[in-house]
C-alpha cells in the first residue's frame, strides 16, 4: 500500500492529540518518540515508531477492551509490554481512525497517570533503624 502521508505527518498528528492531555512530556526512548506523564522521568503513556516498514502507535488499554480491539487486524499485542495491557495500532493499515486513537491514548493517560499518582501520593513509611 502506498501512503500519501509521511511519517512526519503521522507524528505531528499524534503530537496534536497528545498536546491536549495534562502533564505530558515528549521524550525519545529507544530511538523513538514517547510521551510520559509526570515529566521526563515519568511513566510512558504512548509511543510511536516504525517497525519493519509499518508505522505504529502503542498505548495501554483496559483489560475488558483488549479482545474486542484485537479482533481488528490493525491491532496487535505490543512487543515486550503486551502482557501489561499494551497494544500497537498499525497506522499504515488503511486510513487511521484518529478519533479512536485519540480516545485510546486518553485512556492510556488515565490508566498510567492514575497509577503514577497513587505511587507518588503514598508517603513511604520510614524503615526502622537497626542497632549494631
Give your account of this protein's structure:
It is a single chain. The chain has 132 residues and is α+β, with helices and mostly antiparallel strands. It has one domain (7-121): Aspartate Aminotransferase, domain 1, CATH 3.90.1150.30. Helix content is 33%, strand content 27%. It is built from 3 helices and 6 strands. The chain has helices at 7-18, 63-70, 98-121; strands at 24-29, 32-37, 43-51, 54-60, 75-77, 86-90. A 6-stranded antiparallel sheet has the order 1-2-3-4-6-5. It is globular and about 65 Å long. Mean pLDDT is 86; it is low at 1-6.
Fraction of residues in β-strands:
25-35%
Helix content: 25-40%
> Structural class of the helix and strand makeup?
alpha+beta
Mean pLDDT across all residues, rounded?
86
Span from first to last CA?
70 Å
Strand order of the largest sheet: 1-2-3-4-6-5
Could you list the spans in which at least 5 consecutive residues all have pLDDT below 50? 1-6
Secondary-structure element series: HEEEEHEEH
Count of domains = 1
Shape: globular
Number of strands: 6
- Biggest sheet, open or closed, and with what strands and sense? 6 strands, antiparallel
CATH top-level class:
Alpha Beta
What is the overall number of helices? 3
User: Which architecture does the CATH hierarchy give at level 2?
Assistant: Alpha-Beta Complex
CATH topology: Aspartate Aminotransferase, domain 1
Give Rg in angstroms: 17 Å
